[in-house]
């Protein structure tokens, strides 16, 4: 009794693609994958490693299951798993993704000793006073005076930017980079409408706000044109 | 039913006690029944500034622990006809002798009898601060035109804004030296108010008379001729809901020479 195959192997110029059926049971899939890979195995020590991308359609695999699949594939010589692609993700991951892409607006003054943390972008309508701190997973936009500490891209996003209507921070942090205000504050020139970003030398640069549209075009999220 | 107003600052030495004493006195001068409460347990000095040290029999800790009735601990100010009282802090215990719950109960019972209860808060943001704020309905934050004091005021305002029972705090800027503000060596009033962004309820100029009066146990607010006294009386009127314009900071110069200078536009 032979029915349609649950595991399809296709060769592309980038390596192998494994299409795993999303209707059969997981146990069955594992068994069949194992068999398929064993029968196809050509022991050829000279061949370079082949990268395999796994497509699992509408099946959801837990971290443990993903690891199991990876182990099965890895056991076969010169195969490495490049990626596992699924059409579905867990609700919690989706929510996390949403939160990280969301702009959270807050209307308050962040005073000395207070810390405001958001997972995504932060739009602060108010000031950050000295001793106060704002932390965001994404970008930070402050419609007020930034006099405290701002930390953008806190989860490892070097592309994050910080902008403020009045840029007089004690410290700026983007991802791992830190810059502090100069010790000798010269004549207090108005630092209005400025932004901070990391350049290619991993330094935090402060520039006019308008520079951002060229440096970080992906800040524009408007679909289509006008 | 009265109102409890806590006077606080975060930083020490900016004039919380002096401000408490004078606002209390000024409110009593307006005919309100006022009770001053010193919550700086272990380091009391509101009694000294008010000149009532020698009349203390019982204190706040005695009341809270039930060793006496409230009215036994209250020290009456003889200068006022039954309008101004002081509940002194204990000098022999420390801040942990009282907890915020007990303070709330105490404030509730005082509010039954007095129009205003002025709570003098200790410096810092620990137990003593928490006790002082527990029973308060309103808050006055005192700062001086110094960066460190403003920084601490900012911190304390942040904490006060978290208190649900306390109305948005009001600001008093104390010890203003107009010549230093003018020369830019001191933060000016506008700078401080924009930075802290809370409502300003009074400014008090630095005045040697204040120190002299405090040392004699006579709050400056009793002296009608001093600038500081007028400033405190104005604060009291603003607390009562009157709208009183801020005093100009420049020294009132009435000499003929300065008038002439003014006339010719020489500064």
TrEMBL record, chain A:
<dbReference type="InterPro" id="IPR055219">
    <property type="entry name" value="MinC_N_1"/>
</dbReference>
<keyword id="KW-0132">Cell division</keyword>
<comment type="similarity">
    <text>Belongs to the MinC family.</text>
</comment>
<dbReference type="InterPro" id="IPR005526">
    <property type="entry name" value="Septum_form_inhib_MinC_C"/>
</dbReference>
<dbReference type="GO" id="GO:0000902">
    <property type="term" value="P:cell morphogenesis"/>
</dbReference>
<dbReference type="Pfam" id="PF22642">
    <property type="entry name" value="MinC_N_1"/>
</dbReference>
<feature type="domain" description="Septum formation inhibitor MinC C-terminal">
    <location>
        <begin position="106"/>
        <end position="206"/>
    </location>
</feature>
<keyword id="KW-0131">Cell cycle</keyword>
<dbReference type="GO" id="GO:1901891">
    <property type="term" value="P:regulation of cell septum assembly"/>
</dbReference>
<feature type="domain" description="Septum site-determining protein MinC N-terminal">
    <location>
        <begin position="7"/>
        <end position="84"/>
    </location>
</feature>
<dbReference type="InterPro" id="IPR016098">
    <property type="entry name" value="CAP/MinC_C"/>
</dbReference>
<protein>
    <recommendedName>
        <fullName>Probable septum site-determining protein MinC</fullName>
    </recommendedName>
</protein>
<dbReference type="InterPro" id="IPR036145">
    <property type="entry name" value="MinC_C_sf"/>
</dbReference>
<dbReference type="GO" id="GO:0000917">
    <property type="term" value="P:division septum assembly"/>
</dbReference>
<keyword id="KW-0717">Septation</keyword>
<comment type="subunit">
    <text>Interacts with MinD and FtsZ.</text>
</comment>
<dbReference type="Pfam" id="PF03775">
    <property type="entry name" value="MinC_C"/>
</dbReference>
<dbReference type="InterPro" id="IPR013033">
    <property type="entry name" value="MinC"/>
</dbReference>
<comment type="function">
    <text>Cell division inhibitor that blocks the formation of polar Z ring septums. Rapidly oscillates between the poles of the cell to destabilize FtsZ filaments that have formed before they mature into polar Z rings. Prevents FtsZ polymerization.</text>
</comment>
From TrEMBL, chain B:
<dbReference type="InterPro" id="IPR027417">
    <property type="entry name" value="P-loop_NTPase"/>
</dbReference>
<dbReference type="GO" id="GO:0051782">
    <property type="term" value="P:negative regulation of cell division"/>
</dbReference>
<dbReference type="Pfam" id="PF13614">
    <property type="entry name" value="AAA_31"/>
</dbReference>
<dbReference type="GO" id="GO:0005829">
    <property type="term" value="C:cytosol"/>
</dbReference>
<dbReference type="InterPro" id="IPR010223">
    <property type="entry name" value="MinD"/>
</dbReference>
<dbReference type="InterPro" id="IPR025501">
    <property type="entry name" value="MinD_FleN"/>
</dbReference>
<dbReference type="InterPro" id="IPR025669">
    <property type="entry name" value="AAA_dom"/>
</dbReference>
<feature type="binding site">
    <location>
        <begin position="11"/>
        <end position="18"/>
    </location>
    <ligand>
        <name>ATP</name>
    </ligand>
</feature>
<dbReference type="InterPro" id="IPR050625">
    <property type="entry name" value="ParA/MinD_ATPase"/>
</dbReference>
<comment type="similarity">
    <text>Belongs to the ParA family. MinD subfamily.</text>
</comment>
<dbReference type="GO" id="GO:0016887">
    <property type="term" value="F:ATP hydrolysis activity"/>
</dbReference>
<keyword id="KW-0131">Cell cycle</keyword>
<comment type="function">
    <text>ATPase required for the correct placement of the division site. Cell division inhibitors MinC and MinD act in concert to form an inhibitor capable of blocking formation of the polar Z ring septums. Rapidly oscillates between the poles of the cell to destabilize FtsZ filaments that have formed before they mature into polar Z rings.</text>
</comment>
<keyword id="KW-0717">Septation</keyword>
<dbReference type="GO" id="GO:0009898">
    <property type="term" value="C:cytoplasmic side of plasma membrane"/>
</dbReference>
<protein>
    <recommendedName>
        <fullName>Septum site-determining protein MinD</fullName>
    </recommendedName>
</protein>
<keyword id="KW-0132">Cell division</keyword>
<feature type="domain" description="AAA">
    <location>
        <begin position="3"/>
        <end position="162"/>
    </location>
</feature>
<dbReference type="GO" id="GO:0000917">
    <property type="term" value="P:division septum assembly"/>
</dbReference>
<keyword id="KW-0547">Nucleotide-binding</keyword>
<dbReference type="GO" id="GO:0005524">
    <property type="term" value="F:ATP binding"/>
</dbReference>
<keyword id="KW-0067">ATP-binding</keyword>
């Amino acid at each position: 009794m032979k029915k349609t195959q649950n595991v399809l192997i296709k060769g592309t110029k980038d390596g192998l693609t494994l299409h795993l059926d999303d209707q059969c049971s997981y146990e069955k899939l594992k068994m069949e994958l194992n068999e398929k890979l064993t029968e196809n195995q050509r022991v050829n020590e000279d061949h370079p490693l082949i990268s395999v991308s796994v497509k699992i359609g509408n099946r959801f695999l837990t971290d443990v299951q993903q690891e199991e699949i990876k182990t099965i594939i890895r056991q076969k010589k010169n195969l490495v798993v490049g990626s596992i692609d699924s059409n579905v993700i867990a609700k919690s991951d989706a929510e996390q993704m949403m939160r990280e892409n969301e702009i959270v607006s807050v209307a308050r003054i962040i005073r000395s000793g207070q810390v405001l943390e958001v997972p995504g972008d932060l739009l602060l309508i108010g000031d950050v006073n000295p001793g106060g701190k704002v932390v965001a997973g994404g970008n930070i936009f402050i419609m007020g005076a930034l006099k405290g500490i701002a930390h953008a891209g806190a989860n490892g996003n070097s592309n994050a930017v910080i902008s403020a209507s009045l840029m007089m921070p004690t410290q700026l942090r983007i991802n791992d980079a830190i810059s502090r205000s100069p010790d000798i504050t010269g004549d207090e020139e108005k630092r209005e409408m400025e932004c901070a970003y990391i350049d290619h030398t991993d330094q935090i640069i402060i520039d006019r706000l308008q520079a951002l549209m060229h440096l970080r075009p992906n800040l524009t999220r408007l679909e289509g044109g006008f | 039913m009265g109102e409890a107003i806590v006077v606080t600052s975060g930083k020490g030495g900016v004039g919380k006690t002096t401000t408490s004493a004078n606002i209390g006195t000024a409110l009593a001068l307006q005919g309100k029944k006022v009770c001053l409460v010193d919550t700086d347990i272990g380091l009391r000095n509101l009694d000294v500034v008010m000149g009532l040290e020698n009349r203390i029999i019982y204190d706040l800790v005695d009341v809270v622990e039930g060793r006496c009735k409230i009215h036994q601990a209250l020290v009456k100010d003889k200068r006022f006809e039954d309008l101004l009282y002081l509940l002194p802090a204990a000098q022999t215990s420390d801040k942990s002798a009282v907890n915020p719950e007990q303070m709330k109960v105490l404030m509730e019972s005082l509010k039954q009898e007095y129009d205003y209860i002025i709570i003098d808060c200790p410096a810092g943001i620990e137990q003593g601060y928490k006790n002082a704020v527990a029973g308060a309905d309103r808050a006055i934050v005192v700062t001086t035109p110094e960066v460190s004091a403003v920084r601490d005021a900012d911190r304390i305002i942040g904490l006060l804004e978290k208190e649900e029972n306390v109305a948005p705090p009001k600001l008093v800027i104390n010890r203003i030296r107009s010549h230093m503000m003018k020369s830019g060596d001191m933060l000016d009033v506008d700078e401080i108010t924009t930075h802290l962004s809370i409502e300003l309820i009074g400014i008090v100029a630095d005045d040697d008379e204040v120190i002299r009066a405090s040392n004699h146990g006579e709050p400056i607010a009793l002296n009608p001729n001093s600038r500081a006294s007028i400033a405190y009386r104005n604060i009291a009127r603003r607390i009562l809901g009157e709208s009183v314009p801020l005093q100009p900071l420049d020294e009132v110069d009435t000499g003929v020479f300065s008038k002439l200078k003014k006339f010719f536009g020489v500064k």
